[in-house]
Amino acid sequence: MPKTSTQRLGIFVALAVVMAATRMHHSILHHFDALPDASWGIFFLAGFWLRGAGRWAFPLLMAEAVLIDYLVISGQGLDFWSHYCVSPAYLALLPAYFSLWMGGSLLARYQVGLRLQTLGMAAVAFLASWAVCYLLSNGSFYWLSDSVPLPRSMAAWSANMADWYLPFLQTTALYVGIGAVLHVLATQVSRALNGAAHSSR
Questions:
Q1: Which residue ranges does UniProt annotate as crossing the membrane (predicted)?
Q2: Who is most buried in 52, 105, 144, 167, counting CB within 10 A?
Q3: Is there a cis peptide before residue 2, judged by omega within 30 degrees of 0?
Q4: Predicted confidence (pLDDT) per residue in 102-132, tens digit
Q5: Distance CA 22, CA 33 (A)
Q6: Per residue in 4-34, is it b (16+ CB within 10 Å) or e — as a string?
């Protein structure tokens, strides 16, 4: 459904707030610490809801993610570049997150409304883009990070991917599922309001 600039901005702000609240661990937002990081789901949903706004929305979300990481790490009195999670592999988050954005964007382009066909397309787009993101983020960390002890091997990498596969998939699917429910509800409410407006004329 076409969106106005105001609607796009509102969606962007909502997604940015959710990412900040869930990605910013050990921060002033203590009551959100139990929530899993929504970042992967946010990039997929942003690609879907903000398709066509990628030139500004994706870079801003990416900058937010990096800024949050910097604030959290430096807030613990640690040097950002010497942190366990930060290495040359950190740069791979750019294509990793972009793959999720593209998955959502392609779904938005080819979806056919609230039909069973769209549900199937959503599942394929989500799983494919999530797999690319997971492969890039996990693989780059394993092969490029000094935090991973030597020697490295394909067998050990496969075991590492298997260990984290389900937790990452479940968390991302949870947020994308919540987004899907909100999308269906918003679409139905919009249709009902439009129908009421037409019938009152």
A1: 57-77, 89-107, 119-144, 164-185
A2: 105
A3: no
A4: 999 999 999 888 888 889 999 999 999 999 9
A5: 7
A6: eeeebeebbeebbebbbbbbbeebeeeeeee
